[in-house]
Structure formats: C-alpha cells, structure tokens
Amino acid sequence: MQSLSLAYRQLNTLILGKPQAIRLALACLIARGHLLIDDVPGVGKTTLAHGLAASLGLDYRRVQFTSDLLPADILGVSIYQRDSSRFELHKGPVFAQLLLADEINRASPKVQSALLEAMEERQASIDGQTHPLPAPFFVVATQNPGEQMGTFPLPESQLDRFLMRISLGYPPREAERALLMGEDRRAMLARLPPVMAPETLLALQSQAAAVTIAPALADYLLALLEATRRPGLFHTGLSPRAGQALAAAARGWALLAGRDYLLPEDVKAIFMPVAAHRLQSATGAPVEQELDRLLSHVAIP
C-alpha cells in the first residue's frame, strides 16, 4: 500500500491540480482495466499515461493513431527469414505492459478494432497464431472531442472494453500558474523514478479482486444497474458486464483508500467514469446529467 501512496503523490507532482483524475486512473489499473482519457489537446493526457507507466515501473510504448495506420503497425507482422527458411514474428507495440493509443479516434474503425482482442483476452492473433501479452497489460487511450476534424467515433463494442473514461479538463488557476513557472513536464518525465515493480502491481490487483462486497452493497449495485434499464431514460441500459466493471472499479477505489471492504461512497465515486461512456441518453439531456439524477434517487444502504 505504501507504493500506491508514493505513486499517487508522484503523479500529483507531474499533473497539477487533478488529484481525482489521478486517483481514478490508478483505481482503473488496479482493477485490471483499460483507461480512456477524453479531452481537448494539451491538457496532459499523454503526460498522465507516460507518468503512470514510469511510476509503476511498466514497459511503455506509444502509438500515434493516424488515418493511414494499419493493424500490423500495432500487432506486428511475421517476416520470412531466408537464412533460417522460416517466418519470424516481429512484435508490435501491443506487446508492452502499458500501450498508449494516442488520439485513438483519428484512426479508422478497422485499426481501432485491432485492439479488441488484446484488450479483452490479453492476447494477439497474428497470421493465425495466438500470442500472449505481458502481465500486467493495459491500454491507455486518449481521444479528442468528436467534433474535431479527422476523427472517427469509437464503436460501442470498443468503448465497452474501457473500464473507465475520464477527463482532465483545464487546471485550476494556481496549478496552471505553477505549470507556467515550473519545470517542463517532459524533463520531469525523463527522470521520474519507478516507485513500484510490475510484480507489486500484480499483487495489488489480486488484493483488489478480494475486496469484500457485502450483500447490501451488491443490492445497491443491482439497483443502479436496474435504474439505467428503465424505459425512456437511455437507449439501452448497463449490461451485466458493465455491472462487473462497476464492482471491479469500486474495489480498486476501496483498496486505494486502504480498505478491504466496499462502502457506498466507493460505488458513487467510480459510477460516472465507468457508466457514462456505455450509455446514450434517450431524453436529449447529457448522459452525465441523467446519471447524477439517477444517483440521487437510488436509495443508499
């Protein structure tokens, strides 16, 4: 747990004024989830992803998604070696422990879908052969607003593979002042020390999976899921897989707080980042607004 606190403090020195977003990102990785950071350019999305990898001691690769990117650029390709008379696999960047898919919605849906198997099964199929990915394995994707030129919306099946979607937003005035007067973030990243080993992170993931959910808390989760499925609120409600995602993320949040049991506050803290990108409003109101109203009406045990 000490290493988690160290990672949290270190990331807060890198990304100023965003403690909630940093805590959510850590909870997501502890829950073995993939993270989507959705925001305008220049607010620190890539810096946060790189900082997570550096602080957690993870092998890190970055792919800049563009309209001409091919699936093989992510997965890798088998190349025939004349000397040995056989094909040799040249692994792509997906074989890192943390893959940053930068501006994922600037690539075509075909390329976006190349990550589906990796995100869900933690394996990659190349030329008919299946190859396991490293453990731990995470995808952190950044996404620009859909109204910007040259973007392709992520399909629902892809969005569902991300445990959380978060936004950083503009920093508070004092934090931005410190950014203007302080050290360049890239220079800070270059010397950011790891405060955790990948093996420690794997152990923390096992601890998070063992966090106790009391029957009353399970009923609260079920009530939230059922509330999203009422006719007229959303086009489709949250699925059972989304319910499992809520439980996993809440467990990660509880572990960050140093607890081995779940409280209603854990569920409420992660509900919006886990649920919002999986839903489409049927009322015309923003999804977040409908979810806020839903949270206020569902009874807390």
UniProtKB/TrEMBL annotation:
Residue ranges of domain ChlI/MoxR AAA lid in the record: 234-284
Q: Does the keyword Amino-acid biosynthesis apply?
A: no
Concerning Pfam families, the annotation shows:
AAA_3, AAA_lid_2
UniProt cross-references to InterPro entries, sorted A to Z = ATPase_AAA-3 (IPR011703), CbbQ/NirQ/NorQ/GpvN (IPR050764), ChlI/MoxR_AAA_lid (IPR041628), P-loop_NTPase (IPR027417)
ATP-binding among the record's keywords? yes
Q: Which PANTHER family match?
A: METHANOL DEHYDROGENASE REGULATOR (PTHR42759:SF5), MOXR FAMILY PROTEIN (PTHR42759)
Species of origin:
Chromobacterium phragmitis
Q: What is this protein called?
A: AAA family ATPase
Q: What protein family does this chain belong to?
A: Belongs to the MoxR family.
Could you tell me one molecular function GO term of this UniProt entry? ATP hydrolysis activity
On the tree of life, the source organism's domain of life is Bacteria
Instruction: Keywords in alphabetical order, please.
Output: ATP-binding, Nucleotide-binding
Q: Where is the ATPase AAA-3 domain?
A: 34-164
